[in-house]
Specification:
Chorismate Mutase Domain, subunit A; about 40% helix; D-Maltodextrin-Binding Protein, domain 2; six-stranded mixed sheet; chorismate mutase activity; Alpha-Beta Plaits; binds prephenic acid; 12 helices; globular; single chain; cytoplasm; EC 5.4.99.5
Length: about 375
């Protein structure tokens, strides 16, 4: 894999002069941006003082979502919306932090895809609080030690994350956001020779997602399960002749070489996370609502329940069943629907649904996440 360093020819004097002139213009733009960013931070500080006096939370998901939507709609390039939105997420993150740093609980350790999702959504000017399990993420937010948490709820290939659904059955926390994170697995190692790799470490789910690639490209290697993709990266950094599968951030953190990227068997491999917190989020116009309900053990009860939503033209984006645990062979149904609980047709549908089911809880209405690919 070693290739000779390419010979970079020095630019002509004319090209160098033009580059220098453009760099001076960039310096000027950067000075203006800095001044504007500080002006924006001062405005955020003013808002922060007013919110504090009124007892309002620093984090306002619907405003952040609306602001990013408006910027994306008004953007005429050349920066693609994806890049523009991630720059502004960082700007908002910094302006939020000058008011009060947000503490985010997520399923740790650092440099896993959950960590990546937390940074993607909240920006890097936050206190990141990695937890040892999904239940611990809920406890951190319930106790107030963290204002928000982020938990995985489903993967495009592997389906539902049961441990998160179980927590939603009993918690009083609300869903206040949604994040889609592309899971782009890389193979990382100290060396750069694929043939010399004898062991590949990773989390069982990551190994399962890359099984086909491993069979084709590393038939000689044994696979070894690790508690997380980040732990696998650490193990690869400590074990010569081994490799790990995980996020590129873990490779960077452990100074490992990325030998192959996007090695998951299905190119569309995305995990959906939910943001949990204590606040009710008002509508932003692009909302979803998560609910959970139990139906009576009678023929047609689920059919009737869903019929109420269909009658009012409410679109469902997901339905999932999960054993209730307290009564054997009884199930809770998790449904996500388009719209906010305050939208008249959603409010009407939820009231009608309530009359058909044994127990209904609205987990929260929140700005719909953007599906990145
Ligand atoms: O609008 C607010 O409430 C702000 O505090 C400003 C701001 C921003 O930077 O735009 C920061 C944090 C909030 O979550 C939403 C928006």
């Amino acid at each position: 894999m070693n290739s000779a360093p390419s010979q970079i020819q020095p630019p002509s004097d004319q090209a160098q002069t033009a580059i220098n002139a453009l760099r001076e213009e960039i310096d000027q733009v950067d000075r203006e941006l800095m001044s504007l960013l500080n002006q924006r931070a001062r405005l955020a500080l003013d808002i922060g003082r007013l919110k504090k006096n009124a007892g309002l939370p620093v984090f306002v998901p619907e405003r952040e979502s609306d602001l990013l939507d408006k910027l994306a709609q008004g953007n005429h390039g050349p920066l693609p919306n994806r890049y523009l939105v991630s720059v502004f997420r960082e700007v908002i993150s910094a302006c939020r932090s000058v008011q009060q740093p947000l503490k985010v609980a997520f399923l740790g350790p650092e440099f896993t895809f959950s960590h990546q999702a937390a940074v993607q959504h909240f920006g890097s000017s936050c206190g990141m609080a990695p937890q040892s399990g999904i239940a611990e993420v809920f406890r951190e937010v319930e106790s107030g030690r963290c204002q928000v948490g982020l938990v995985p709820v489903e993967n495009s290939g592997e389906g539902a994350v049961g441990a998160s659904l179980d927590q939603f059955m009993t918690t009083q926390l609300k869903v206040c956001g949604e994040v889609y994170t592309p899971i782009n697995h890389v193979l990382m190692s100290q060396g750069d020779d694929l043939d010399a790799i004898t062991t590949v470490y990773s989390h069982p789910q990551a190994l399962a997602q890359c099984r086909g690639w491993l069979t084709r490209n590393l038939p000689q290697a044994r696979v070894a399960e690790a508690p997380s993709t980040a732990a696998a990266a650490r193990q690869a950094a400590e074990t010569p002749g081994s490799a790990a599968i995980g996020a590129v951030a873990a490779a960077r953190h452990h100074c490992l070489k990325v030998l192959a990227e996007g090695i998951q068997d299905y190119t569309y491999n995305t995990t959906r996370f939910l943001v949990i917190g204590k606040q009710d989020v008002p509508p932003c116009g692009q909302d979803k609502t998560s609910i959970v309900f139990l139906t009576a053990h009678r023929p047609g009860s689920l059919y009737k329940a869903l019929g109420e939503l269909a009658e009012l033209g409410v679109n469902l984006s997901r339905i999932e069943s999960r054993p209730t645990k307290d009564r054997p062979w009884e199930y809770a149904f998790f449904v996500d629907l388009n719209g906010h609980r305050q939208d008249p047709e959603v409010a009407q549908a939820l009231a009608a649904l309530e009359s058909q089911v044994e127990r209904l809880r609205v987990l929260g209405s929140f700005p719909a996440g953007e599906m990145l690919s």
